[in-house]
Automatic annotation (TrEMBL):
GO molecular-function terms, A-Z: magnesium ion transmembrane transporter activity
Keywords: CBS domain
Species per Swiss-Prot/TrEMBL record: Nocardioides silvaticus
PANTHER family: MAGNESIUM TRANSPORTER MGTE
This protein's name: Magnesium transporter
Keyword Zinc-finger assigned: no
Segments forming domain CBS: 351-409
A Pfam family this chain is assigned to: CBS
InterPro entries: CBS_dom (IPR000644), CBS_dom_sf (IPR046342), Mg_transptr_MgtE_intracell_dom (IPR006668), MgtE_N_sf (IPR038076), MgtE_transporter (IPR006669), PRC_barrel-like_sf (IPR011033), SH3_actinomycetes (IPR058838)
One CC-aspect GO term: membrane
């Protein structure tokens, strides 16, 4: 494999990083450069790499042996110390995209949407070219794009007070929510706010669910009450309840009043339960069907792409009403069992009606033991009248069992493959 002479930063993000034995050890998340003068090409110091547990570490370019179209190879040595950006360093994706610049030779002004790096005569990697997009004119949806030499562009080294977030948002929208959350977490506070403001309510809700509580609260506080309420409505009720519980009581009440009544009601109900109990962890929106539903009906419901795999694993058959809290829970149907049944048959004929249920006051240890005992990834939570209140999933359980700073922990300081 040979490394191309020029590599664009946006195409690097998300690529797997392999050691010499062909084992994936990380993913590329950003490039770190040392900015000097506008006339001097910045040296690429290394990559921000994401290892297991969404931990960000620094991979020096001296450790990178090969870059090709689909992967990056290293010497096999990764320092597992968390990446801390220095004041002399700039993140290409996090800080350079969307800067307003001018191409000196043509006078064209636009925003940066990508930069290219290449090897210099000294074998160092340097930023050599800048991809610039002009503002849209007339009926065009997008402005013209230009590729300029680094020294033909001004505005790259100065702080841009009006820096937008269009191109960074576009990059984040291509990522999984967990990966987008990691990138957002690592941005400077002002930049993080600008990006959060530019994301759609639904996308921001997905990303917020993956962020640490401090980041969630910080972003929500900067959104303004109306927008914050809209984003909370898009979050799953249990995640929204956890987040609102971290806010001052008066702020929480304002946001709940601004939310749609049905959404707010679900959140208020979850907030009544003691922290780290089944009631506080559960989602009030599992797949609920009546006793007359067919297997085809059940399969159509679990195909909903908004369902997590854990929530899609069980269908809950209840008497009316079919919204939590429901009528009496008749039983659950395992999706694996339903796949073996004719589509026209009733779900009620394939019920597991002997599955033990959880009470809302079950402790986190009791929930964990329950899922482990019955080899489940989700379980029903019912009240004293066996009305379904919600479902606890294994991902909800892990969110509450892992320590708050679990992403910052690492068992060792160095991974070294011989």
């Amino acid at each position: 494999m040979s490394t191309p002479s020029r590599v664009y930063a946006a195409r690097l993000v998300g690529l797997p990083i392999f050691d010499p034995q062909g084992e994936q050890v990380a993913k590329v998340r950003d490039l770190v450069v040392a900015m000097r003068t506008e006339a001097t090409q910045p040296r690429v110091l290394g990559m921000v790499a994401e290892v297991f547990g969404r931990r960000r570490v620094f991979l020096p370019m001296t450790r990178v042996t090969t870059i090709d179209s689909g992967q990056v190879y290293t010497t096999g040595l990764l320092n597992m110390r968390r990446f801390e950006q220095r004041s002399t360093e700039t993140l290409v994706m996090g800080q350079m995209l969307d800067r307003t610049v001018t191409i000196k030779s043509t006078g064209v002004t636009g925003t940066v949407f990508d930069v290219a790096m290449e090897r210099s005569r000294t074998r160092d990697w340097v930023l050599s070219r800048v991809a610039v997009q002009e503002p849209a004119k007339g009926l065009r949806r997008r402005g013209q794009t230009h590729i300029a030499e680094w020294d033909d562009v001004t505005g790259l080294t100065r702080h841009d007070e009006g820096q937008g977030a269009t191109h960074l948002v576009a990059a984040i929208n291509e990522m999984r929510p967990a990966d987008a959350a990691s990138m957002l977490h690592d941005l400077p506070a002002e930049r993080r706010t600008a990006v959060a403001m530019a994301l759609t309510d639904e996308r921001l809700a997905d990303v917020l669910e993956e962020l640490p509580e401090d980041d969630q609260v910080g972003i929500l506080e900067r959104l303004g009450s109306e927008r914050a309420a809209d984003v909370l409505e898009e979050m799953s009720a249990d995640d929204a309840a956890d987040l609102i519980a971290e806010l001052p009581p008066e702020t929480a009440e304002i946001l709940l009043d601004l939310m749609e009544p049905e959404e707010a009601e679900d959140v208020r109900r979850l907030m009544k339960y003691v922290e780290n109990t089944a009631g506080a962890m559960m989602t009030p929106e599992p797949v609920i069907l009546g006793p007359d539903a067919t297997v085809a009906d059940a399969l159509a419901h679990v195909r909903n792409p908004d369902l997590t795999p854990a929530l899609a694993s069980l269908v809950y058959v209840c008497r009316q009403p079919l919204e939590c809290p429901t009528g009496k829970l008749l039983g659950v149907a395992h999706i694996q069992r339903l796949l073996r049944e004719p589509p026209s048959t009733l779900v009620a004929g394939a019920l597991d009606d002997e599955l033990e249920v959880l009470r809302p006051d079950a402790t986190i240890d009791q929930v964990a033991a329950h899922l482990a005992t019955y080899n489940l990834v989700a379980a029903p939570v019912v009240d004293e009248n066996r009305r379904l209140l919600g479902a606890v999933t294994v991902d909800d359980l892990l969110d509450h069992m892992l320590p708050a700073n679990w992403r910052d922990r690492a068992a060792s300081t160095v991974i070294h493959h011989e």
